[in-house]
Amino acid sequence: MAVMMLRSDEDLVQAFQAGDTTAFDALVNRWDRKIQGVVFRVVGADEDARDVCQEVFLKAYRGLPSFKKEARFSSWLYQIALNACRDRLRRRRGRHHMSLEDLEETADGPLGAKGPTALERVAAREVRERVAAAMATLPEEQREVIVLKEYEGLTFPEIAEALTVPVSTVKTRLYRGLVQLRQRLEEEDVRRSEPVPLRPLT
Amino acid sequence: MTCEAFRDDLLDVLYGEAAPEASRRFADHQEGCQACRQELRDLGALRGELRTWRLPAPQPRRITGGMPSRPSWLLVAATVLLSVGASTVFSRARLERQDGRTAVRFDAGEQRLALQLAAQEARHRQEMALLKASLAPQGGRVDDESVLRKVQELLRESESRQGIVLEARLSDLATRSEAQRRYDLAQMSAGLNYLDGKTGLQAARTTELVGHILQASQKR
Fold first, then answer.
1. pTM of the full structure
2. Taking the CB of residue B200, how many other CB atoms lie within 10 A of it?
């Protein structure tokens, strides 16, 4: 497996297409965490998102035999992931709106790690909640671009390839998304700083 | 030129993707533009905040939670798949994957089935008529044994067709199961690697702690 991990995505895809099915394991190992990152941040960190991750790799497994070398594997996989996210969000819209709990992470750092104090952890959690809540209010297309740029570190041309839109569209969506996020976070700050009104005693 | 015209350059600079020319262009602009300098600073601070949103730590997990252990699950799955496949073929039902779930849909009652049945019946009647016509010259009446042979032949053909359909469906299901198995294995492998790392870290800390205690007791 260690040797597999040294090979490029394209080599692994070629090996898989030539019949070496273990190459797919290496691709899953390499991309699972990244795909989880995208799905969790776009759909929310819940069971739904786990289903979507599974769907992404099942689709990839079935689609790989006909994958064309001209495309970049990473862009192709992100494309599958984003399409799966959109499908899930479309279906979910009929059921309920995305809540903060859907997007908010649930686990802290590794067990026993030298970590921050309880007070610092509470403060950090508060900051994360703000970001998750603000992201949840963005239109899907802006959220997707921000996730790919900020958390996946893709370049503008890579995002354009994954979304099959021009680079200028990517930049427009990103800028509008960032401006909206900033506005939401500022509103949230104002809301939090307002004193809680006292309820009259009954 | 308005600040709007420099928006793409600003993003390139913000994310460190600016070509030298764009970088210089934006630097020249922001030198005389307080608003763009502020925007760049604000967006940089916003990016800092965004980075605080981290993902949950990876956890080894089964992607289809709540299932029994693999051997019994595989046995049950194989049995179910075989029976679903067989009954699908014989009942003219179809397997559909929708909303991430596989469902068996029966066409009974649907207009399409009625049309198919009517067409099949018409075809059979026609075949029977042709058969009778081909047998008629031999003594002027239909030979029961030849009809039976012909019917048996038709049945064999039909069974062979159904066999091919069943094989194709089972092959598709096998592909899906294989993908699921590979994904499971990759997940387990990632989970075990994670646990290995964590256990190693814990052991190192314990050793360090014991060392400190020993040192402290020796000093005392």
1. 0.56
2. 10
